[in-house]
Design goal:
The chain is an alpha/beta fold. 38% of the residues lie in helices and 15% in strands. The chain contains ten helices and 14 strands. The chain has helices at residues 27-37, 73-76, 86-97, 108-115, 131-143, 176-186, 199-208, 228-239, 256-264, 274-305, and strands at residues 39-40, 54-56, 59-61, 65-66, 100-103, 120-125, 148-152, 165-166, 169-170, 191-196, 212-215, 246-249, 269-271, 319-320. Helix 4 (108-115) links the parallel strand 5 (100-103) and strand 6 (120-125). Helix 3 packs parallel to helix 4 (108-115) and helix 3 packs parallel to helix 10 (274-305). The longest helix has 32 residues, at 274-305.
Length: 323
């Protein structure tokens, strides 16, 4: 198998998980290199053991590390292990550890099993050209106990610049007015826009009433996409110090050290994707819980070394950013 540029080969049977192209346009490589180039200052006098408690959208969670918006993993394993339900397995890990759980494009039938785990699940919906389909999935999610809903604003286009087609469904553009309609339909649940990679979109999301955004390049959908942590500071500056909209981050958050860097730069929480994919596919719920517990330890270690006692005390001055 090809190396993914993210600390090791892809897990699972060849072809089950897409292998990114290894060239200069691969945003994942740039993201990994930028994360690794960020260094950390030490501040030990008076440092105490850190508290990882996260408060998000009115609920309290054990950690700012969240599970990712995976999609289609049940279908990917049907031929090799038809009894497995990895989408439900990682949701169960989120429920057991009291984490925010994200889920991507899935059928209502699969979502029902995920909601049944009790995980605080945010369902990320594709930008279908059929807006009624989006509204119906919002309605279903509200009725079945979702913690929040959102939309992938970065999955509009395919590789040829035309509107993408996913599982036979046509994608379409997302306007500010569309976002306002989805926010209203989702109420009182928080509505998030996933795939924000610039301050202009962040400001439009705020104007539309979004409760949060996910700063992400969706594992490199756009060639030469900026690493999320490069654009995160300018997004936060544009939103201002008194911001109420939550700013979450994903892409290449593979361990607790990566999470620390994103949180120190101002993210409210982070999502770990490929970092739990291998454990999930090989060991199910227990392996995911072990991986995230390890990440929590790594995050607490760096918070201790930098004198940061809780998430509210996170500050970028403990970081040395690359030139």
């Amino acid at each position: 198998m090809a190396d993914n540029g993210l600390r090791g080969p892809w897990p699972g049977p060849k072809g089950m998980i897409p292998e990114p192209v290894q060239n200069a346009a691969d945003a994942n490589l740039a993201t990994r290199r930028y994360l690794d180039a960020i260094l950390i200052r030490e501040r030990l006098i008076g440092a105490t053991e850190a508290d990882l408690t996260l408060r998000l959208f009115g609920k309290t969670f054990s950690s700012p590390i969240m599970t990712p918006a995976f999609s289609h993993l049940n279908e990917a394993l049907k031929k090799t292990d038809p009894d497995r339900r990895p989408m439900r397995e990682y949701a169960r890990a989120a429920a057991d550890l009291n984490l925010v759980n994200f889920v991507g494009m899935e059928s209502d039938e699969t979502m029902e099993g995920i909601f049944a785990t009790g995980a605080s699940t945010i369902r990320i919906i594709k930008p279908f050209a059929d807006h009624d389909r989006i509204l119906e999935q919002i309605r279903y999610s509200k009725e079945h106990g979702a913690f929040g809903v959102g939309i992938d604003i970065d999955h509009v286009f395919g590789t040829d610049g035309s509107y993408d087609v996913v599982d036979g469904f046509q994608m379409g553009p997302v306007t500010e007015e569309d976002l306002k309609a989805y926010v209203q339909a989702a109420a009182p649940l928080p509505f998030l826009a996933k795939g924000v990679l610039g301050y202009e979109d962040a400001l439009l999301c705020r104007q539309a009433g979004c409760a949060g955004i996910v700063v992400s390049h969706h594992h490199g959908r756009m060639p030469f996409a900026a690493p999320p942590l490069v654009v995160l500071p300018e997004i936060l500056r544009a939103l201002g110090k008194a911001r109420t909209m939550k700013v979450l981050v994903d892409c290449s958050i593979d361990d607790g050290r990566d999470a620390f860097k994103a949180l120190a730069l101002g993210a409210d929480a982070v999502s770990v994707g490929r970092g739990i994919l291998r454990p999930l596919l090989s060991g199910g719920t227990p392996a995911v819980e072990e991986k995230i517990t390890q990440m929590n330890g790594e995050l607490k270690q760096l918070m201790g070394y930098t004198g940061i006692k809780n998430l509210a005390a996170m500050t970028p001055d403990v970081l040395i950013l690359p030139d």
